[in-house]
Amino acid sequence: MNRVIESLLSHRTIRAFRPARIDDAQLDAILEAGTRAATSFQPYSFLVIDDPEILEDVAMYNAPIAILVTIDVHRFGRYLELHGASKPTDSPFYLLHAHWDALIALQNVVVAAESLGLGTVFIGRVHSMDLRKPLGLPENVCPAGLVLIGHPTEPSPGRPRYRVPLEAVVHRNRYREPTDEELEAWYGRYKEMFDKHYEALSDEEKEELAAEGIENGLQRFCHLEGTFFREADEATLRNLQHGGFHVADWGTTA
Ligand SMILES: Cc1cc2nc3c(=O)[nH]c(=O)nc-3n(C[C@H](O)[C@H](O)[C@H](O)COP(=O)(O)O)c2cc1C
After folding, report:
1. Which residue range forms the structural domain that includes residue 203?
2. Which of 15, 33, 122, 253 is the most buried (most CB within 10 A)?
3. Taking Cα atoms as reference points, which of 163, 162, 46, 68 lies closest to residue 124?
4. Domain-embedded: residue 163
5. Which residue's CA is minimally distant from atom 15 of ligand 1?
6. Is residue 29 located within the same domain as residue 107?
């Protein structure tokens, strides 16, 4: 093993931070590490957020800093324009391409921060946040990922959280369909957790859910996730549109 792999293997999401600010030189190194990820002309921007008012809006937890990575086809597009050039970007392929670029840069930020003993947490709600005004995002710039970074209040517990075993996610040369027994073994602990949450509900809450056909923990989990996604979809589409990706107009060609 080496220190990079050790750091990756001991990753833990951290949700409680001390108010202490992050050293400027460390932050620069973290951001520089972000930009060292592989890239196709860097179609992204980092917005470093330490304004307490904005932080309060974007952060679910108290952290001294948030780093938003956006897909940014504005900056390079402007440069191309200076030379009478432009390239099509409003396409599914380019959206995935630029999103990939932005997120590996953000993951580099996380890996660098953790290697310095800092804690991080992604904030999944970012796609539906309206950050255009607060952050002054121009057209063709939209959120791709958000991470909070800070000094953890407590030393890392050292033990990483559960992942399904490698054999569940790794396929060699050909996709292998798992058996039902394997699925039970891999996901059983999630079922237990969701069943526990479900069992803790009051009879009245259970009855309300039953009226919607929801009668166990996994069904409730899917219902909650589905509702959350559906509620976020409109704002997410708006953000993508602002980013220059008019996905609603793409239609299907397959
Ligand atoms: C796309 C994505 C979005 C996430 N969003 C949130 C979030 O909004 N709030 C949160 O507390 N954790 C969030 N997380 C962190 C996961 O909850 C965490 O990674 C997971 O529970 C596994 O724990 P670990 O990172 O400590 O191994 C997110 C992770 C990912 C990859």
Report:
1. 169-249
2. 33
3. 68
4. no
5. 122
6. yes
